[in-house]
Design brief:
The complex is a heterodimer of chains A (339) and B (91).
Chain A (H helix, E strand, L loop, with lengths): L9 H6 L18 E2 L2 E2 L5 H11 L12 E5 L7 E5 L3 H10 L4 E5 L7 H6 L5 H10 L8 E4 L9 H8 L2 E4 L7 H7 L3 H4 L5 H26 L8 H19 L8 H9 L13 H17 L9 H34 L1
Helix pairs in contact in A: 5-6, 9-10, 10-11, 10-12, 11-12, 12-13
Chain B lengths: L9 E2 L9 H5 L5 E3 L3 E3 L10 H5 L5 E2 L7 H9 L3 H4 L7
Antiparallel strand pairs in B: 1-4, 2-3
Classes of the chains: A mainly alpha (339), B alpha+beta (91).
The complex binds iron/sulfur cluster (2 copies).
Chain lengths: 339, 91
């Protein structure tokens, strides 16, 4: 048997399933929606408030529910067994969209979503095996359904070898699960999308994370010698990078994200109309927009690591030169202002 | 939406036993089944590694990772401890 050891050492796990050591990051769990095995599929004000907070990057880590086996509806021995991570947002999708009866095995992914956890090996073969060994699932079949997006962390043939369970990869979106169970797999259920709604849901985190830079820009606006437009330049730069770019991503002309950023940032040159001495800061603003668009590679669903590295090999030296130029011009601008 | 066509994905058709796991796990339908399994849309590969992990006979290889510029910067800056605090890893 061949084991891809780069992610984890599956052998040691097989022999030491119970004695596994995990890094405990936080012990805070969201418990009000589960009692024993039963899951409450009703949404409370508390859920909505927390979810909004998490979407805005507040308390985003450690937003998790206890691991274990749960009942959705009233499952019996023929009901399907789903495996998922312990991120509360993920679990809420299940609570919202599962209308049939299921057993749901929640494994420890350290409160991160399925895709990111799988990439890090957290939603991994070892954890699935560990949970399958420690929990008795009262069903008469031996199939388990894993989220398709857990694929990067899973070696399904190893799970089958160790536990005897047949691994099926379910649809990408949990909305499709009920249909998948009754009508089987449809091509579209395997397809990862990145439509406007997906992109809009990402906006709040991006926007909130730019607040601290805007605060710095606000303070800089009052520094003598720097243009008083500094804050507005950075505000517009941030909107271009954090809002306009994600929304219009499909119609952006370049494949390399940072080029799209520089293209969008040409808008900032309009500030020259009010103040020629703002050029240096504008160049910094353009750099910021470009950097934001490049960072957005991490949020999309279609970029590859080799691709991102190739883009960065080109972008980073260019940005450094741009930054030096911006610095020189800003210095000249300040000197002209002050003298 | 397409990104740069530089993915490190390699497929060895001779090893393939046709179990179709790669069709099942790939989020971008890079592999298709004609008479045999074929790597039809390599340009769409995001190097997630799911196919490689789940291929029981190692017919597929790919340098898996996440296409995230922040993560790349972060790994790079890890060498310089004092710079690290400026960048927080996403996801
Ligand atoms: S690495 Fe991921 S995206 Fe690329 S072919 Fe394999 S499963 Fe598909
Ligand atoms: S997973 Fe491997 S063996 Fe199975 S069909 Fe794909 S390439 Fe062939």
């Amino acid at each position: 048997m061949d084991v891809k050891a780069s992610r984890f050492d599956a052998f040691s796990i097989m022999f030491e399933v119970s004695g596994i050591k995990r890094e405990v990051v936080s012990d805070r769990y969201i418990k009000h929606i589960v009692s024993e095995q039963k899951v409450d599929q009703k949404f409370y004000l508390k859920d909505h408030l927390w979810n909004i907070g998490v979407r805005c990057n507040i308390n985003r880590d450690h937003y998790k529910i206890p691991t274990g086996l749960y009942q959705f509806g009233s499952p019996d021995e023929n009901s399907k067994v789903l495996v998922t991570g312990n991120y509360k947002l993920t679990f809420d999708y299940l609570r919202k969209y599962l209308k049939k009866n299921y057993w749901v095995l929640v494994i420890d992914t350290d409160g991160i979503n399925v895709w990111c956890a799988a990439g890090k090996g957290r939603f991994g073969t070892a954890e699935v095996i560990r949970m399958l060994k420690s929990v008795e699932i009262p069903v008469s079949h031996n199939e388990i359904i894993l989220p398709q997006l857990s694929g990067p962390g899973i070696q399904s043939h190893l799970i089958t070898q160790v536990t005897g369970k047949k691994v099926i990869f379910g649809p990408v979106r949990i909305e499709d699960m009920d249909t998948f169970i009754t009508d089987g797999m449809h091509e579209s259920m395997r397809q990862v999308n990145f439509n406007l709604k997906d992109r809009l849901l990402l906006l709040p985190v991006e926007i909130v994370s730019s607040f601290k830079y805007l605060l710095v820009a606000l303070i800089l606006s009052f520094v003598p010698g720097l243009p008083k437009e500094t804050f507005w330049i950075f505000l517009v730069a941030s909107i271009l990078g954090n809002v306009i770019h994600p929304i219009f991503l499909p119609i952006m002309p370049f494949r390399k994200f940072y080029l799209n950023g520089f293209l969008l940032s040409l808008v900032l040159l309009l500030f020259l109309i009010t103040n020629l001495n703002a050029l240096g800061v504008i160049l910094f603003g353009m750099l910021y927009t470009s950097f934001l668009t490049m960072s957005f590679t991490g949020s999309t669903t279609f970029t590859s690591l080799t691709g991102v590295k190739a883009e960065m090999d080109e972008a980073v030296p260019f940005m450094i030169k741009w930054g030096i130029l911006a610095f020189i011009i800003t210095t000249i601008n300040i000197l002209r202002e002050v003298l | 939406m397409k990104y740069l066509d530089v993915a490190t994905l390699k497929f060895n058709q001779e090893k393939c036993i046709g179990c179709k796991k790669c069709l099942e796990v790939c989020p971008h339908q890079v592999f298709i089944l004609k008479n045999k399994i074929e790597m039809a849309h390599k340009a769409l590969c995001i190097e997630c590694g799911a196919c490689q992990m789940n291929c029981p006979v190692d017919a597929i290889s790919v340098d898996a990772g996440t296409g995230c510029a922040t993560a790349v910067l972060y790994t790079y800056l890890k060498k310089y401890k004092f710079l690290r605090r400026f960048l927080k890893g996403t996801c």
